[in-house]
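Sat 14:20. Reprocessing the chain from the morning session after the first attempt stalled halfway. Input below, unchanged.
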Amino acid sequence: FTMVSRLINAYLVFYNLVLAFGWASLLFLVVTSLRWGSEGKNVACTFKGTVCFDTSSSGRIFDHLKIFQTAALLEILHVLLKFVGGQIFTTFSQVFSRIALTWFICNVDSRILGTAPFYTMCFAWGLTEVIRYNAYWMKIVLGEVPYFLKWCRYTFFIVLYPLGVYSELVNNYHAVQHLDELKSEGKFLDENEENTYVTRLSEQYHYIIYFLFLLYPAVFPQLYLYMFSQRGKQLGKKRAPPSEEGIQFPKDTKGKRSTSMFNQKAFAASLAPVNVDAALEVMSEKKWRFGYAKHVINNVRLSCQNTESCVKIAEAGLNHLHTSFEFNRDGVTTSLRVAMATYTGSFNTLEIKGTGSIRTEYEVPYVATDYPKESPELKLKGDELAEQLAKWVKKGSIEPSSAEAIKMVSETKGWLDLSDKYFVLFGATSAMGPLDVLLAHGANVICVDLDRPFIWKKLVEKAKASAGRIIFPVRNDGVSADNDEEV
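Finished this time. Tokens:
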């Protein structure tokens, strides 16, 4: 695959270099056609006579345009073959609009070539593409786009995009206008048998132009605003890269830390000792991000077969994680397994015990109506909970077995005291997590979460007001659980 990717990159560099040169030559012809006045033959002006062009070069410019704009059709193929990223619909729309203008407007009506909007259109397209194609090949060769070129790409569009759209709309209008002139002159729209096809074709030509007119209000504002949002991202202040210290996902062959691929390999490794075929099915999943659910379900199913299978799957999965995760410290990279045996004393443990009373009834929070007209949150319990469970089952909102499980927990009072139970929560304050319920029933919760002050402030406040206890790591020795600021 490395050799294939190198060949693809070599082709893309060649393609983008050729297109950059081609558009640069077209841009040169347009710029050298500029005139400072409207005097003389073959001169066309726009913007109230302030911008004029010598139209004798229009034939050569259009020859360049046909070649290099048509070559852009390969960009659709590049996306289809996954040579480059991008959405096929977006790429097709952008290429199609220009192909239509080149071949169905300018090529059909050569009089457009002698107008100033044709030249301003070519100028806007040419400068845009010279910047874009040079940015593409430099990104492949250098690994990043030089800042000056990036600045040009995300700044010049502010003027070039409106100029291009204005020129394209005027050229479309000229096409309709010239066709109407031909109609009035009766040059080909008679009803003779041999001209019937031409008559119908000319009518369809009108529809094509009108269709192109309709595309602009639908596409241009979105594209223009998108480029502004990209400008902020590309030219704004860059965040400092995340620290490489501590536990890291391993790098792939491209030097990126892919969490999705790592996840897929972990599930395959966990299943291998119990069911090799299931492990191979995991690795054969081409789009893990969208197809992982069935493999997770199968992992649970195989784990539930017997105690031995459950333990083997858990041990194999953990072993893969310990050997595959990287740990970086002071420029030294090891596996997580080696790091756990090498480094000690990195963290201390702190506990916070709440002062509340253990909840003796099981409650299910429920909001009856959806956003934006949300009803007050209800606390369903006892008979009210049983009635609502029955309604949910009847409507198909939950499985009957789920309703029975909730009802059993609610009715078995001895299960509601979790003071002798321990739970480990990764992302302890997650909105979908069980932290609140566990603390309400007095559980001991080992909490791991992001190192963000507002997260731990919320966590500490919840723990102190609850009947439970949280246990969590701290970096500094001597931190007191009574001092919220230190925590």
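The first helix runs from residue 2 to 31.
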